[in-house]
Amino acid sequence: MVIDCNECAMQGTDQCRDCVVTFILREEGQPVVVDAEEARALRALGTSGLVPLLRLVPKPAPDLADAG
């Protein structure tokens, strides 16, 4: 799983500041890569309240019909 804050619709919002990626990195930057086991661990920590949950909301794809 690649988590790229630049591809998240929540970037710069209150949800961003309450996201596990922001919690871990303390700043926006390069994408974070986690494997399935790490993703499960982060989800378990988040649902138990130990760290914030992942708040990633992918930005919508650009509408190619509007581009031309």
| SSE topology string | EHHEH
- Contiguous runs where pLDDT drops below 50 for at least 5 residues: none
Beginning-to-end CA distance, first to last residue: 33 Å
The beta-strand count equals 2
**Number of helical stretches of at least 4 residues:** 3
**How much strand?**
5-15%
Please give the share of residues in helix.
Answer: 25-40%
Sheet with the most strands, sense and barrel status? 2 strands, antiparallel
Please give the order of strands in the largest beta sheet. Answer: 1-2
Q: What would the principal axes of the Cα set say about the shape? A: globular
Task: Provide the residue-averaged pLDDT.
Answer: 82
Please state the structural category. Answer: mainly alpha
